[in-house]
Amino acid sequence: MLLRVSRAGLEPGEPGQFFMLSPPGRVLPRPMSLCLALPGELGFLLDPIGPGTRALAALETGDELDVLGPLGNGFRLDVERPLLVGGGIGIAPLPYLAERLGGAPALLGFRSAEHAEAAALLPGAEVVVEPEYVTERLEPGHGVLACGPEPMLRAVAALAPGAQLAWEAPMACGYGACYGCAVEIGGTLRRLCVEGPVLAAADVAAPLAREEAA
């Protein structure tokens, strides 16, 4: 579902940055990539599978919501022949990214045909459904900008070391204090909220190559 929130003076930031959304009655906020920058509104793509996202999905028109952002580092837009690659709910930042790029081809992967309905947010996108994976359709020669589950991102990094990858992780603060979003990349821990969520694929691909050589 698409949650539409009044901007109330908030700027949309750069594609790939995120916002911390705090629904009423919940102690911890939830990090959400901006999906759409609408006139007077910000749009966030939700998959209500946990208590936090279900609380966000249950909001009604007129409900108040605490919003902090934009946070983190987004995608660089100075890429040649951009190709947007997304997996599951990881397609969330791609519609806004496509808008800022003035349009770009997209390759999207989903677990099921039902989940693939979200591809309507990127008209014209090439869609694959498991057991096929986006990496099976990924061709060289593109500036890849990707977001999705970690296995997909690591596979993309191995195929396209020049890619930009937006990582997903639970977050409690959004500004580096709690270390709840730290992931191991290239042998070091990265706090995705301040060093990411967008990171260079080369940082991932190099360690993978060393492991294969060993």
SS strand fraction:
25-35%
Strand order of the largest sheet: 9-8-7-10-11-14
Shape: globular
How many discrete domains? 2
- Count the beta strands: 14
Helix content: 10-25%
Mean pLDDT: 87
Please summarize the sheet with the most strands. 6 strands, mixed
Low-pLDDT segments, ≥5 res: 207-214
SS summary, helix count:
5
What is the C-level CATH assignment of the largest domain? Alpha Beta
Give the helix/strand class: alpha/beta
CATH architecture of the largest domain: 3-Layer(aba) Sandwich
N-to-C CA distance: 45 Å
By CATH, the topology of the largest domain is Rossmann fold
Alpha carbon gyration radius: 17 Å
Briefly say what this structure is:
This protein has 214 residues and is of the alpha/beta class.
How would you characterize this protein structure?
There is one protein chain. This protein has 214 residues and is of the alpha/beta class. The chain has two domains: 2-71, Translation factors (Elongation Factor Tu (Ef-tu), domain 3), CATH 2.40.30.10; 82-213, Rossmann fold, CATH 3.40.50. Helices cover 19% and strands 29% of the residues. The protein is built from five helices and 14 strands. The chain has a six-stranded mixed sheet, with helices on both faces. A three-stranded antiparallel sheet has the order 1-5-4, with no helix packed on it. Strand 7, helix 2 (94-101) and strand 8 form a beta-alpha-beta unit. Helix 3 crosses helix 5. The longest helix has 12 residues, at 202-213. It starts with a strand and ends with a helix. The relative contact order is 0.15. Mean pLDDT is 87; it is low at 207-214.
